[in-house]
Amino acid sequence: MKIKVAEDVPSKPVDAPGAEGVQIRLLIHNAEGAENFHMRQFTVSPGGHTPRHTHPWEHEVFVLEGSGVVVTADGDVPVAPGQCVYVAPDEDHQFRNTGDDELKFLCLVPKSGSR
What we know:
This protein is mainly β and 115 residues long. It has no helices and nine strands. The strands form two sheets. A six-stranded antiparallel β-sheet has the order 1-2-3-9-4-7, with no helix packed on it. A three-stranded antiparallel β-sheet has the order 6-5-8, with no helix packed on it.
């Protein structure tokens, strides 16, 4: 078992095309020996966003702080702390910070979908 404080994990900018003002912390990853799932924490600055994209794996998101929207093929859906989001495989999506404070969320993906 490994236990650590999320804020002690260094963050790095997300350099994917289409990302703006996004930082990632690899909380549970290869270094911890995670064989099936990876846990990442994203922090999106006010006005920032993840890239709009699709991929063949699902992921689950838990919103920790801030406010924003999930951009979907059907329109924008507001999200707030305490809400969970399931993104199905191949579903078009993007997370946008629409508030004045950081938008922070956990994102869990299968190891094959982690970068």
